[in-house]
């Protein structure tokens, strides 16, 4: 089997057992160090608990988040013989909507918990709305605390059907519902004997089998230049390379590319990857998400922030972007605010020209144009850029379709956005305008 990577985010309401489920998943896949487990066992004993409380593996981080210290999304890493995992444990409270957006923005799967006793609640709608908004392709529904309803099949079936109908409202079609007891481990890693009526996979089996990674390598090639390498040494007297990360697609030696925003064409004549001794390993091809250095046939003026892209699938080069944003700072967004806009590795000055609407995150209904967007608000904004910039729509290419709005005065990140189409290239604009 291939050993690939799955990024997934967890979301759930208060007291639905998310911490216990995450702890159970880590424990039963043997992804906890012995000293960590011993510390949790001691803490459980100190609290007078008869069994080890696996929720304590994550509750420490949760306490830090609730105190507003440093951690917004807790990332956990584990692996099995089949694949590796990056788990983004996101807070589920309504006031932490921005944090779920952060954690789910790079996920290929959302793991949403529902308490079997309560079924679908408002927070479930919110989590599904954000999942649909971000275009997360796969959803796993963990109907937790099945032990508290005696593993009642009709209750599970009702929750599964209600959730699937709601998911379709938000544009989510791929849903796998799994009855679990995180406390006892039923259907998390090991199959439960208490659900003979359930023939589907355990949670881990589903995580092992869900398709991942196929879209990034099949998408058009995009490579954001981080810096230009010119060592000027005796070993590399004429070396000029462009270092960065392949954000989507793949590239081979001999491929025709263009450099945006200028649209200058060239050909890839070399692909290098650094190795431990400080030297370079020459590759014939590279693909997302590899970090490499590209060498081109032509001596072009290329700098940080430029985008090297497939010649036959070039990005739009625009002077204006429109997209849905989530505000992540105390400072609200208002029309005519001057900001720095980061798209990939490119930073340009910009101005918010219009707030188009505010989105009700529980329904995805769009309200009228507001005077401002505050902390955790979601809404569509239009931003004018001071320089032509290459961009894709978020739905097509998330890595080059996402943007950040940053305060010019102190560098604070104000909002994260997802570019929408149609994108109007500057060659189609009647005139350019300044910021």
TrEMBL record:
Pfam families in alphabetical order: GTP-eEF1A_C, GTP_EFTU
GO biological process: sulfur compound metabolic process
Tr-type G domain: residues covered: 3-217
GO molecular function: ATP binding; GTP binding; GTPase activity; sulfate adenylyltransferase (ATP) activity
InterPro entries membership: CysN_GTP-bd (IPR041757), CysN_II (IPR044138), CysN_NoDQ_III (IPR044139), G_TR_CS (IPR031157), GTP-eEF1A_C (IPR054696), P-loop_NTPase (IPR027417), SO4_adenylTrfase_lsu (IPR011779), T_Tr_GTP-bd_dom (IPR000795)
Top-level enzyme category: transferase
Keyword line: ATP-binding, GTP-binding, Nucleotide-binding, Nucleotidyltransferase, Transferase
EC number: 2.7.7.4
Record-linked PROSITE patterns: G_TR_1, G_TR_2
Annotated protein name in UniProt: sulfate adenylyltransferase
Annotated source species: Naumannella cuiyingiana
């Amino acid at each position: 089997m291939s050993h690939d990577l799955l990024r997934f985010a967890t979301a759930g309401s208060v007291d639905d057992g998310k911490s216990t489920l995450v702890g159970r998943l880590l424990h039963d896949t043997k992804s906890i160090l012995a000293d960590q487990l011993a510390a949790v066992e001691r803490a459980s004993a100190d609290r007078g608990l008869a069994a080890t409380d696996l929720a304590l593996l994550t509750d420490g981080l949760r306490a830090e988040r609730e105190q507003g210290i440093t951690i917004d999304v807790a990332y956990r890493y584990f692996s099995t013989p089949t694949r590796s995992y990056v788990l983004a444990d996101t807070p589920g409270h309504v006031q932490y909507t921005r944090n779920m957006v952060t954690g789910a923005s790079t996920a290929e799967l959302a793991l949403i918990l529902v308490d079997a006793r309560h079924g679908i609640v408002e927070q479930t709608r919110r989590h599904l709305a954000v999942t649909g908004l971000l275009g997360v392709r796969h959803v796993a529904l963990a109907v937790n605390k099945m032990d508290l309803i005696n593993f009642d099949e009709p209750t599970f079936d009702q929750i599964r059907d209600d959730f699937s109908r709601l998911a379709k409202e938000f544009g989510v079609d791929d849903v796998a519902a799994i009855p679990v007891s995180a406390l006892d481990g039923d259907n998390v890693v090991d199959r439960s004997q208490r659900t003979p009526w359930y023939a589907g996979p355990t949670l881990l089996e589903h995580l092992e089998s869900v398709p991942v990674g196929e879209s990034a390598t099949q998408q058009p090639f995009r490579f954001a230049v981080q810096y230009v390498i010119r060592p000027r040494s005796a070993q590399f007297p004429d070396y000029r390379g462009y270092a960065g990360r392949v954000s989507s697609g793949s590239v081979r030696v001999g491929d025709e590319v263009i450099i945006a925003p200028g649209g200058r064409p060239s050909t890839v004549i070399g692909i290098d990857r650094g190795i431990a001794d400080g030297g370079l390993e020459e590759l014939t091809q590279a693909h997302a998400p590899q970090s490499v250095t590209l060498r081109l046939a032509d001596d072009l003026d290329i700098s940080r922030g430029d985008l090297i892209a497939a010649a036959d699938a070039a990005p739009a080069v625009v002077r204006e972007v429109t997209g849905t944003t989530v505000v992540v700072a105390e400072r609200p967004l208002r029309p005519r605010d001057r900001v720095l806009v980061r798209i990939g590795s490119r930073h340009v000055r910009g101005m918010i020209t219009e707030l188009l609407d505010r989105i009700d995150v529980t329904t995805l209904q769009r309200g009228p144009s507001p005077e401002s967007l505050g902390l955790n608000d979601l809404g569509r904004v239009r931003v004018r850029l001071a320089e032509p910039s290459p961009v894709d729509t978020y739905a097509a290419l998330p890595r080059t379709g996402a943007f950040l709005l940053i305060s010019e005065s102190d560098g604070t990140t104000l909002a994260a956005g997802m570019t929408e189409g149609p994108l109007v290239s500057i060659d189609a604009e009647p005139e350019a305008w300044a910021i």
